[in-house]
Amino acid sequence: MSKDLINKILITLGFIFLYRLLAYVPVPGVNIDVVKEFFDSNANNALGLVNMFSGNAVERLSIISLGIMPYITASIIMELLAATFPALGKMKKERDGMQKYMQIIRYATIVITLIQSIGVSMGLNSLTGQSGQGAISIDMDTFVAVSSISMLTGTMLLMWIGEQITQKGIGNGISLIIFAGIVSAIPSAIGGTIDLVNSGQMNFLTVIAIVVIIMATVGAIIYVELGERRVPVSYSRKVMMQNQKKRVMNYIPIKVNLAGVIPAIFASAILMFPATILQGSQNEYLLVIADYLSPASYTFNVFMFLFVVFFAFFYASITFNAKDISENLKKQGGFIPGVRPGASTAEFLNETASRLTFWGAIYLGLISTAPWLIVKAMGVPFYFGGVAVLIVVQVAIDTMRKIEAQQYTNKYETLSAVGL
C-alpha cells in the first residue's frame, strides 16, 4: 500500500473521528436527560430513525443534531429543478457552472437548516420529563437564537467535513458521514438486543433468525451491486493500430443499480421530515398522520417503496447519459456490433439501461422494505430497516472500489516512473 493511499485513509478516519466528537457537543441551554428520555420512548418511530442516521447525536441534542439531512434535502430540490429547467441543467454540466450550482445548494442548506433548527428549538419548549423538568434551562428567546446558530454551525461543519473527505480522502464524504452515523449505533443495538434476550422479551432463536435475515440482505446487496451488463464495443482496425500501446475498453459496463444508494437516502429524507415535525404536535389528527408515517407502520414502508423506485429511475436518468456515451464512442471510432453509430446507439443504450433500472429499482425498493416486513411478522419489538444495511454495504463497496482504483493508479505511476 502506497504512502499516498495511507495518507488519504488516515485523513478520512481523522475527519470521521472529528464528526463523532461533534456528536457529543450539546447545544447550550438544553437538559440532555429530558431529551434522551423523550427519544428513548420514541425509538420505534420517525424520531428513532432520525436518531439512528445521526449516530445518536439527536438524543444528545448536539450541534450536529440535524445531521447532513438539510444538505441532502437541498440537493434533492436542486436535482429536481435541474431536471425541470434546462438552463439549470446546462449550468450543472459546465465546470464553472457546477461551482455556482454547488454554491446554490450550500445557500439552500443554510435556509433549510435555520428553518428546521428554529422548529426544533420551539418544539423543545413544550417538552418535559417524567419528573416535570423542562428540556430548556434558559430563556426561550435566547435559546432559540443560540440553538439555531449552534445547529447551523454544526451542519456547516458536517458539510465541510464531507467535502474535505471527498477531495482529500477516500470515498464520498457525505455517504461516509451517514455510514459512520449508522455504524456507531451498532454497539448499542447489539447491547439492547442482549438485554431483551436476558429479560425474556426476545427468544434466542429470534435473534438467530434476525442475523440470518441481515446476512441474506447483505449477500443480496453485494450480489446485485457487483452485477452489470457489459455491452460489447468494436473498434476499426485503424483505431486499434493507433492505440495498440493503450488499453481500449471493449465493452460499456451498465450497472443493474445505476442510482446507487441515493434513492434510499432521498426517500428517507423526504418521509422523515413530515413525520418528525408532526411527532411533536398536540393535535390528535396530526398525531394520527404521524403514526401512519412512522417507520414502524405499513404506510411508511409502502411510501418508502414507491419513493425509492421513483428516485431510482429519476437519478439513473441523470447519471447515465446515453447520448454523451454514443457521441464519445463515435469520436473514438467505436461501435456496438449490429447497432448504427449515433442516435441508434443512444436509443439502444437507453433501452438497455431502462430495463436494468427497472429491476434495479425493484431491488432497491424490496431491500428498503422487505427486511422490516419480515422482522415485523416475527414480532420483534424494535425497528429494523433495510435502508441502514443498504447504505452501510453500498458505501463499504464504493469505498473499497476507490481504494483499489487508487492502488492501481499508484502502481501505473510507479511503472511509468521507472520507464516500464
TrEMBL record:
Source domain of life: Bacteria
Major localization listed first in the record, in broad terms: membrane
Keyword flag Transmembrane: yes
A cellular component term, taken from the record's GO annotations: plasma membrane
Subunit structure: Component of the Sec protein translocase complex. Heterotrimer consisting of SecY, SecE and SecG subunits. The heterotrimers can form oligomers, although 1 heterotrimer is thought to be able to translocate proteins. Interacts with the ribosome. Interacts with SecDF, and other proteins may be involved. Interacts with SecA.
Pfam families tied to this protein: SecY (PF00344)
Protein name: Protein translocase subunit SecY
Matches recorded under InterPro entries: SecY, SecY/SEC61-alpha, SecY_CS, SecY_dom_sf
Transmembrane segments: 9-27, 61-83, 104-122, 142-161, 173-192, 204-227, 248-278, 298-322, 356-374, 380-397
Keywords: Cell membrane, Membrane, Protein transport, Translocation, Transmembrane, Transmembrane helix, Transport
Keyword Disulfide bond applies: no
Protein source organism: Poseidonibacter ostreae
Family membership: Belongs to the SecY/SEC61-alpha family.
One of the protein's GO biological processes: protein transport by the Sec complex
Signal peptide: none
Function: The central subunit of the protein translocation channel SecYEG. Consists of two halves formed by TMs 1-5 and 6-10. These two domains form a lateral gate at the front which open onto the bilayer between TMs 2 and 7, and are clamped together by SecE at the back. The channel is closed by both a pore ring composed of hydrophobic SecY resides and a short helix (helix 2A) on the extracellular side of the membrane which forms a plug. The plug probably moves laterally to allow the channel to open. The ring and the pore may move independently.
Subcellular localization(s) per the UniProt record: Cell membrane; Membrane
Membrane topology summary: Multi-pass membrane protein
